[in-house]
Amino acid sequence: MTKMTTRTVEYPADGLTMIGYLALPAGVDRRPAVLLGPEGMGLSDVERRRADALAELGYVALAFDLHGGRYLGDPEEMLARCMPLLADPDRMRGIGHAALDVLRTEPRTDPDRIAAVGYGTGGAIALELGRDGANLRAIGTVNATTTGRPGEAARIRCPVWAGVGSEDPIMPPAQRNAFTAEMQAAGVDWRLAVYGGALHAFHHPPVDHPVVPGVGYHPQHAQRAWRDVVDLLTECLPLAENLGA
Q1: CA dihedral 89, 91, 93, 96 (to 10 degrees)
Q2: Whose CA is closest to 55, among 91, 14, 109?
Q3: In the beta sheet, which residues pair with residue 160?
Q4: Cβ within 8 Å of residue 218, ≥6 positions away
Q5: What number is the average pLDDT over the span 103-120?
Q6: Percent of the chain beyond pLDDT 70?
Q7: Per-residue burial over 96-114, b = 16 or more CB atoms within 10 Å of its CB, e = otherwise
Q8: Where does the Dienelactone hydrolase domain start and stop, copy by copy (predicted)?
Q9: CATH class of 5-236
Q10: pLDDT for 193-210, tens place per residue?
Q11: CA torsion 122→207→48→63, rounded to 10°?
Q12: Which residues pair with 115 in a beta bridge?
């Protein structure tokens, strides 16, 4: 495990001033990078810890913001903002590209070696970046088997990994099937992991505020999903060629 440093970064997106969280591995060399998207509630310490963990592995990691520095713990407020956002691919792409530009211009980032990993709404944004033809080495999503506009998945230029709970009522089997059909028809290199018995947001530790129905933490599957994300990065965004450079 290497030492790392962190800082916040401000940037405009979706008519707001976003406040992202950047984690940098030790050293001064360029490294592969990961754009990290949060659940619909917004950027929290959960995503900051994930960014830290990625930096400790050796990646530059930017956890991006959804709500202009706010965390939406009220489910009604969260849904009121996220549902229109999820229905608007261009808005999602705008939020994603703004954060991706910040990450790509960071001096420690190798701009040709970036992956996008997102959870819930953040995962949907990662997928929309792919559908918009963004230069990514991998896309990983949890709880975000969302479909896009017809034909645009053919613009995805990298492998896609998706994880979902078998009992997730927000991403039920019909939605999963539509997602995999879209990926298959587009010729995408895709994988789907279904975690048995898990609900929506099974990866997210319990919170001290109300949540939408169908949400529940599954610690064992949370660890498995994180290992699967790291495995995706190891395959598609290896660190070996950078270390010692």
Answers
A1: -140
A2: 109
A3: 139, 190
A4: 165, 195, 197, 198, 199, 202, 203
A5: 98
A6: 97
A7: bbbbbebbbebebbbeebb
A8: 20-235
A9: alpha beta
A10: 999 999 999 999 999 999
A11: 10
A12: 34, 138
The answer to whether 72 touches 81, Cβ cutoff 8 Å, is: yes
Taking only the tens place, the pLDDT of each residue in 84-101 is 999 999 999 999 999 999
* b/e sequence 133-159, b meaning 16+ C-beta within 10 Å: ebebbbbbbbbbbbbbeeebbeebebb
Owner of token pair 């706010």: 70
Are 176 and 145 within 8 A, CB to CB? yes
Q: Please, what sign has the CA dihedral across residues 137, 142, 147, 148?
A: negative
What burial class does residue 239 get, using C-beta atoms within 10 Å of its C-beta: 0-12 exposed, 13-18 middle, 19+ buried? middle
* Residue 197, CA distances (Å) to 47, 163, 228 in order: 24, 13, 17
| Polymer length in residues for the chain | 245
Amino acid identity at 214: G
- Parse the chain into domains and list their residue ranges: 5-236
Name the one residue in this structure whose structure tokens are 């896309």.
Answer: 139
Residue 200 has which token pair? Answer: 């929506």
* Distances from the Cα of 218 to the Cα of 28, 103, 197, 202, angstroms: 38, 31, 9, 5
Helices (DSSP H) in the chain: which residue ranges?
Answer: 45-57, 75-86, 89-105, 121-131, 173-185, 219-236
Q: How far from the centroid of its chain's Cα atoms is residue 227's Cα?
A: 15
Comparing C-alpha atoms, which of 161, 171, 162 is closest to residue 215?
A: 171
